[in-house]
Amino acid sequence: MKHFFLASILAGALALPAYAADYTIIAPANPGGGWDQTARSMQTVMQQEGISGNVQVQNVPGAGGTIGLAQFASQQKGNPNALLVGGYVMVGAILTNNSPVTLKDVTPIARLTGEYEAIVVPAASEIQTMKDLVEALKKDPGAVSWAGGSAGGTDHIAVGLIAKAAGVDPTKINYIAYSGGGEALAAILGSQVTAGISGYGEFESQVKAGTLRLLAVSSAERIEGIDAPTLKESGLDVVVENWRMVAAAPGLTEEQKAAVSADVEKLAKSASWQEVLKSKGWQDTYLAGEAFEEQLGKDISATETVLKDIGLVK
Fold this sequence. Notes:
- The protein has 314 residues and is α/β, with parallel strands linked by helices.
- The protein is 44% helix and 21% strand.
- The protein has helices spanning 2-15, 34-48, 66-75, 88-96, 130-139, 154-165, 181-189, 200-209, 254-269, 271-280, 289-310, and strands at residues 23-27, 55-59, 82-87, 107-122, 145-148, 174-177, 195-199, 212-217, 241-248, 283-288.
- Strands 1, 2, 3, 4, 5, 6, 7, 8, 9 and 10 form a 10-stranded mixed β-sheet that branches.
């Protein structure tokens, strides 16, 4: 009888859902931003898809993600249940802040999403096309003010690349960094700046309402559903994509890293995640393993070059 009960208990245990360990995802930014949205979307999908029974999100904002990165690297060493969301903006912030902690101090797992930059002007602006904006930039770089996100981030890098492609000294650009998308948007709508730059999603509703004019997007080819030329079509050889990634803690065993990678792959390949991408207007740029680590190295090197050109990194 005793053996029967033991067998019953074991059978019952085996019949329970085989969840992976619970996860805590660190979003190194304030609630509402792109990293926070990514972390909370991951939380929802991982639970919906049965990848993890319980997923928590913690916000650790500051310094372009480098405060959250440093805290994650020091406090989560060897913890296979901790994840960190990061991306292109963090690469720039590490360099511009001369951060002692870098992405080499964590375990990169995969690139998840991408979002292209959009260049806009107020609807009342005399600037009608990207070519008009470039002509003004060539005439007097300092007279053209750009509203965007944090210094050294994707928006700033994109403006530097636009200036360089137009034959303008990138150190002469008049870039105004705003801590939040709302502040930048208010400055653009109030005609306090010449132009604005951010992910298309930040401007979509105003573009559709007719209060902002969309001049160009930073994709390699035209984006379906968006009525705007690419920067390449406008005569500027520039393609910029603001990508987001997920990393695991440092000091994991190969088995632990493989288990985390498998869970992230399940997330990225799931129908629920594809729905999130569609609803958010994010591109599916999933890249994992050695291919991602190799691409990350290239992106860090290219970003360092651009930030030196802009004058933000010595």
